[in-house]
Amino acid sequence: MSIRVLCADDHEIVRYGLCLLLENEPDIDIVGQAGNAAETLALLEKLHPNVLLLDLFVPGATGLSLLEDVRRQYEDVAVVMMSGHAAEGRVREALQLGAMAFVHKEEAAEELVRAIRRAVAGEKYLSPALAQRLCRVCGRPGGRAGAETAATDRTRSRDHPHGGGRDDQRRHRQAALHQPPHRRDPSLARHAEARSAQ
């Protein structure tokens, strides 16, 4: 059984090239082309494709808002997003909104075919270049992991404005005991010695 694909992209020459590429695959059948959001929704209703190949930017709506509409109205249609300049945040959001795959347009043609087949099989798929970029972002201080670490540090600073709480206070007392007599803070040193004697 062939995979029925609807291609939605605002550039006619891009649609033509994609369709020409996919028609060479024996298990893929291009059933229609759309150049904007309204055409995409109309053809989904009329043609009942298995896969919607959707550009991130289409006239009449953003690709992400159209993705939400498609997922709400046509749950059986697997959406494969594509873009030539997708930011990592957009890729992550598309997957969270229900896209089954995301492919960068500069990837090899085989990646698009692989994404379509994986999507129909119910498997999430990211083309290699996008997957590497997302991994790098999550590992950077400005990425998701870094943001979570920064948030934790801010919470600690708010809860303990004068330091890290009991651990810091203990370290300060120990440091006071090891300072030369002429450099010690007398009150801190006496307090540290009293605590150590307990």
Provide an overview of this structure.
The protein is an alpha/beta fold and 198 residues long. It folds into 2 domains: 137 residues, Rossmann fold; 41 residues, no CATH class. Helices cover 54% and strands 17% of the residues. The chain is built from 9 helices and 8 strands. The strands form 2 sheets. Strands 2-1-3-6-7-8 form a 6-stranded parallel sheet, sandwiched between helices. A two-stranded antiparallel ribbon has the order 4-5. Helix 5 links the parallel strand 7 and strand 8. Helix 3 runs parallel beside helix 4 and helix 8 crosses helix 9. The longest helix is centred in the C-terminal third of the chain and has 16 residues. It is globular. It starts with a strand and ends with a helix. About 17% of the residues have low confidence.
Defining key terms:
six-stranded parallel sheet; 9 helices; 2 domains; Rossmann fold; alpha/beta; two-stranded antiparallel ribbon; 198 residues; globular
Oligomerization state: single chain
Beta-strand share of residues:
15-25%
- Rounded mean pLDDT is 77
Indicate the structural class: alpha/beta
Radius of gyration, CA atoms, in whole angstroms: 28 Å
Shape descriptor reads: globular
**CATH class bucket of the largest domain:** Alpha Beta
Largest sheet: 6 strands, parallel
Q: What is the number of E strands?
A: 8
Low-confidence spans: 140-167, 180-184
Biggest sheet, spatial arrangement of strands: 2-1-3-6-7-8
Domain module tally: 2
Q: Supply the CATH superfamily name of the largest domain.
A: Response regulator
Could you spell the SSE succession in H and E letters?
EHEHEEEHEHEHEHHHH
Query: How far from one another are the termini?
Result: 80 Å
Helix percent band: 40-55%
The second-level CATH architecture of the largest domain is 3-Layer(aba) Sandwich
Q: How many DSSP H or I helices? A: 9
